[in-house]
Design brief:
The complex is a heterotrimer of chains A (about 180), B (about 260) and C (about 600). Chain B is built from eight helices and two strands; from the N terminus they run ααααββαααα. Chain B is mainly α and about 260 residues long. Chain C has a domain of about 160 residues. Helix content of chain C is about 70%, strand content about 0%. The chains are: A mainly alpha (about 180), B mainly alpha (about 260), C mainly alpha (about 600). Chains in contact: A-B, A-C, B-C.
């Protein structure tokens, strides 16, 4: 029995030594908490923050860079505004958007309204876009988040940002108007 | 034991001599001879292993163990050693007490800040208004080293200009981290001549650190202490790449690459 | 939502699945193909909780306990099989007896493994239902096969164990040995299947961007890290199993009542230690292979592992492995006391010790030193001019090769200690061996120094392969020389099994405890590098426990786990002794009338 107790004490001391070393012998680095999905605080939002939020969503939650990258799966968006202006003037454009902002919005939620030549789904002769609805469940951007992404795209293209930072009530209205737009 | 061999130093004393000899040997070699002190935390761990190694050597035979423990046993049990025993039994607790006291004593030193020096870089980062992929990023001027050495030299020279105008105040004109402002900084600026610094890193890593500076360090293992400015605000992307060329060229180091050589 | 209909008639079904199925999976996926959902996006509300129970800690502990027992149970039959075979070849019954005793210990551990495995699945279903469902759909075939295989394994194990004394002699013994082989095959297969599930979470395969699985069972099993983990775990299990059995023998030795028992358990402990060291020597290389593959799979994962928060774990690991090597060596040195001829080698031991300790110090030296502010100022920067050199990989690779080489040397001395060489070329043979060791050591050092400090590839471990090869060549060649040289060598005196000091047995306990703790720690790292992902970069952990804990937290859990495991192991060992006890209680039973 004494052997048993001795062995137990010895083993516990060994465990204790390892525990002590790990707890006190080395620097205790606090790992970064997992990245939080941003909660948008509209109250204190400045345009700068709003664009930054858009940039974050563009690379992060929006998964936009999965296709909009150098690999050529989708058009690059560095000059999105200039391209949009061209498209709006082009006779091939059959959508309802009048401004660049409207066009970018439309392309995000209804990508197949206008497909940039060469980027359509195979075999559809550029009539169907492979892009999902950015507000749909696979990407799941909210209306506010999408507005931020569009603001970011405008900023990225070096043009004036026309997107208004939505207010709390406006965002609800925005959702309404978006719906009515879809029904058109 | 009735051994015929001549008297040698008792094992216990031998052991103590070896342990203390190693301890002071470390201090002598590093602090005095090499002029780079051995950190206390490291020395403590070193000594733990040295002591266990020494103990192992002195106790693996029965005779060794018996000889080693005999004086200790005698000290505790032998009636004739009563006086020494009493002295030892007073001194040992006193020493332990002194050690505890001195290590608990509040000091004026700021608390030790432990930091990771080798931060894990992000996969992607933003600088100069674009996004860079660190895993694929390469120095656009590096190729000239083979293709057009004259042009390469020119770029290195331009990088040198950028360095002298911007970096040498802290990192030193010899790239040894001893610039005029260096003494004011803690931690001191990085010494690029050291084999442990840029020679261990890829050029893309340097680009990230230079462009985004101290504030660009990852959230992980924060808080960081780095006074490196965000250089993308002061020098261009091209200049950054050129100054990286210069850093390696001047120190004679090579950036780490993924290729086997 | 009407826009989605535009995707429906898509010609390319898989592409449609990639984009659209996330929205309406049932409508999007073709009816012929199995439906796999995308990786769910979970919130805290999706994780059921029981008040006062920390789900992660419970799953963590249960999984780790399951793994400890599983490792033990998979490993022991491997060497039982080998020992049985040795017994059959040499016709020495003591081998057979020892093999039987090993497997006897395993039996209870086996049911504990199964119980813990069941508890683990319950915990996963309870606390992580969405994750479990997601994985179970992908692995449905292999999970089903796993359950069935478990029956097969149990059947074979029971026949193997309970039939031990029945299947003796001649052909019957061969049948028994074949059963042992079968047992190992099933055991390994089970482990490989389970490994696939864990490695899938680390290096998912055949998933599209949304986490929809589009491959077959084999694609999911044969993911990137599967084979490296299989190898690493198999080798480590053998070493671990050896160390646990060693602790068992050590305890039996300490509490032995007579000389014969002492001799038997001393011999058993020696063999267990031999197995543990034998598997420990190649383990670092299996580890490097695994790490290299992790880098190859995802550089981000590799850097997270070695450079960030986890970097310090490898310093702790160095301490633990140091404890393993030192205690294994100490046991060997003590073991030389069993022979009368050992004193010829005793004075060499201190040199081996010096090399081991120095290698170990190099191995332990961290790249990032823990410095006080005054030290930082004094050094003029966070890099140490001389010690920093030891902090990087090539130095550690070199050190580990020396550790292995000199541990082998300890073993060689032990083997020789009781022998007199009789061959005429003994001097030449010894000289050749010395030359081999010296040349090899020089080669390892040069390789390490050259590749570490005079080249500039990211792969600083380029030298590691030639270094390992050097080590292996030295070991193999000197084994051959020894075998030839000591052929027909005379014993100095019969080996005195049982003549071991008790403190040597504590080396075996240290080995077992360190190994357990180390496995717990490394198990955490393997799982922890996924950070806040269930399935790396695919399926996010949305639970409140998704954070990566600090090392003190980890040390707490691992220590608690180790203590629970030790308690359970003691219970298992105790049971195996109880089963051998027969108490005759006089006057309790009615006298049988004749």
């Amino acid at each position: 029995m004494t052997n048993f107790i001795k062995v137990c004490i010895f083993s516990l001391l060994t465990v204790g030594a390892f525990w002590g070393y790990s707890s006190f012998g080395i620097p205790q680095i606090k790992p970064a908490p997992p990245p939080v999905e941003a909660k948008v605080d509209l109250g204190s939002m400045t345009m700068e923050k709003f664009i930054a939020l858009g940039a974050e969503l563009f690379d992060g939650k929006g998964d936009c860079t999965l296709c909009h990258n150098e690999m050529g799966r989708a058009p690059m968006l560095e000059k999105a505004v200039a391209d949009a202006e061209k498209t709006l003037k082009s006779p091939a454009y059959k959508g309802t958007a009048k401004t660049v902002e409207e066009y970018l919005y439309e392309s995000s939620v209804s990508p197949s309204v206008y497909v940039v030549p060469g980027f359509g789904k195979k075999g559809t002769n550029d009539t169907v876009s492979p892009m999902p609805d950015a507000t749909g469940s696979s990407v799941g951007l909210t209306k506010i988040e999408l507005a931020a992404v569009i603001a970011y795209l405008q900023d990225l293209s070096g043009s004036e940002v026309t997107v208004q930072i939505p207010t709390m009530d406006a965002s609800a209205e925005g959702a309404e108007s978006a719906k009515s737009k879809e029904c058109e | 034991m009735n051994t015929t061999q001549k008297r040698r130093i008792p094992l216990l004393l031998q052991m103590a001599l070896v342990i203390f000899g190693t301890y002071f040997g470390f201090i002598l070699v590093f602090d005095v001879l090499l002029g780079q002190l051995i950190p206390k935390s490291l020395l403590t761990m070193y000594m733990v292993f040295v002591v266990s190694g020494v103990l192992m050597v002195y106790t693996f035979t029965e005779e060794g163990t018996r000889e080693l423990t005999a004086p200790i046993k005698a000290l505790v049990e032998d009636p004739s050693k009563r006086n020494i025993r009493n002295v030892v039994f007073v001194i040992v607790p006193l020493l332990a007490g002194y050690y505890t006291y001195s290590s608990m004593l509040p000091s004026f030193d700021p608390p030790t800040e432990l930091r990771t020096i080798h931060p894990a870089p992000p996969n992607k980062f933003k600088a100069y208004g674009k996004s860079f992929d660190l895993t694929k990023l390469e120095n656009p001027y590096r190729k000239f080293e083979k293709e057009d050495p004259a042009k390469f030299k020119e770029h290195v020279r331009e990088g040198g200009d950028v360095y002298i105008k911007n970096c040498q105040y802290c990192h030193g004109d010899k790239l040894d981290g001893k610039g005029p402002y260096a003494p004011g900084l803690n931690p001191t600026p990085l010494n690029f001549q050291d084999v442990g610094t840029i020679a261990q890193l890829q050029e893309s890593f340097l680009f990230w650190r230079i462009a985004t500076g101290g504030p660009g360090l990852p959230d992980e293992a924060a808080p960081w202490i780095s006074s490196m400015p965000i250089w993308e605000n002061f020098i261009t992307e091209d200049e950054t790449w050129k100054v990286i060329l210069f850093l390696y060229d001047y120190t004679g180091r090579r950036p780490r690459t993924w290729e086997h050589e | 939502m009407f826009m989605l209909s535009a995707f429906m008639p898509a010609a390319n079904a898989s592409e449609a699945a990639a984009t659209a199925s996330t929205a309406v999976p049932d409508a999007a996926a073709p009816a012929t193909k199995a439906i796999f959902p995308p990786a769910p996006k979970l919130t805290e509300a999706d994780y059921p909780s029981i008040k006062g129970v920390n789900a992660r800690v419970v799953v963590w502990l249960v999984a780790q306990l399951h793994l400890w027992f599983g490792a033990f149970v998979v490993a022991v039959p491997m060497f039982v099989f080998i020992i049985e075979a040795i017994g059959m070849a040499t016709r020495e019954q003591r081998y057979d007896k020892m093999a039987y005793e090993f497997i006897k210990v395993t039996i209870t551990a086996y049911s504990l493994t199964a119980l813990l495995g069941g508890l683990l699945s319950f915990c996963l279903i309870l606390f992580y239902p969405d994750l479990f469902q997601y994985l179970a759909l992908i692995f449905k075939e292999s999970m089903f096969a796993y359950a069935l295989l478990f029956f097969a394994e149990s059947a074979v194990l029971y026949i193997y164990y309970y039939g031990w004394h029945w299947l003796q002699g001649g052909n019957k013994k061969w049948v028994h040995l074949t059963l042992g082989l079968l047992l190992n095959a099933f055991g390994l297969l089970l482990m490989f299947l389970a490994n696939a599930w864990t490695t899938f979470m680390m290096s998912p395969a055949a998933l599209d961007a949304a986490g929809v699985f589009n491959g077959d069972t084999w694609a999911a099993i044969h993911n990137f890290l599967w084979n490296p983990i299989n190898l690493h775990r198999t080798v480590a299990n053998v070493a671990y199993g050896g160390s646990i059995v060693g602790a068992y023998a050590a305890f039996k030795f300490l509490s032995a009542k007579n000389k014969e028992e002492r001799a038997h358990y001393d011999w058993m402990g020696y063999n267990a230690n031999f197995i543990a060291i034998g598997a420990l020597l190649p383990l670092p290389f299996a580890g490097y292979y695994l790490t290299a593959e992790m880098y190859a799979y995802s550089q981000q994962m590799g850097i997270t592992l070695m450079g960030g928060v986890f970097a310090w774990i490898f310093i702790i690991q160095a301490v633990l492995i140091g404890a393993l090597f030192l205690s294994a060596n100490y046991y060997l040195w003590c073991g030389m006391g069993r022979s009368e001829g050992a004193h010829r080698y005793n004075h060499w031991i201190k040199y081996i010790a010096v090399v081991l300790v120095v290698s170990f110090l190099v191995w332990f030296t961290p790249h990032t030193l823990v410095l006080t502010n005054s030290e930082l100022k004094d050094l003029g920067g966070p890099y140490h001019k001389y010690l920093g050199v030891l902090g990087i990989m090539p130095a550690k690779n070199t050190a580990v090769n020396f550790l292995i080489l000199f541990t082998y040397l300890s073993f060689m001395f032990y083997r020789r200690s009781n022998k007199f060489v009789t061959v005429s070329w003994a001097k030449v043979g010894n000289a050749a061996q010395v030359a081999l060791f010296v040349a090899g050591s020089i080669n390892i050092t040069i390789l390490g120094v050259y590749h570490g400090y005079f080249t500039n590839t990211v792969i600083k471990i380029a030298a590691s392969i030639p270094q390992v090869l050097t080590t292996l060549v030295i070991i193999i060649v000197s084994v051959i020389i020894d075998a030839l040289m000591y052929k027909g060598a005379k014993d100095v005196a019969p080996l005195r099994w049982g003549r071991m000091p008790p403190r040597s047995q504590y080396a075996l306990f240290l080995l077992a405890v360190s190994f357990t703790w180390l496995m717990g720690l490394m198990g955490y790292v393997r799982s922890g590098i996924r950070q806040h992902w269930h399935v790396y970069n695919m399926f996010r952990d949305g639970s409140p426990d998704a954070f990566t804990p600090g090392l003190d937290y980890v040390a707490n859990i691992v220590s608690i786990g180790t203590i629970i495991f030790m308690a359970m192991v003691i219970f298992v060992f105790w049971l195996s002794t109880v089963s051998g006890k027969h108490v005759v209680s006089k006057g309790y039973w009615k006298e049988q009338q004749a």
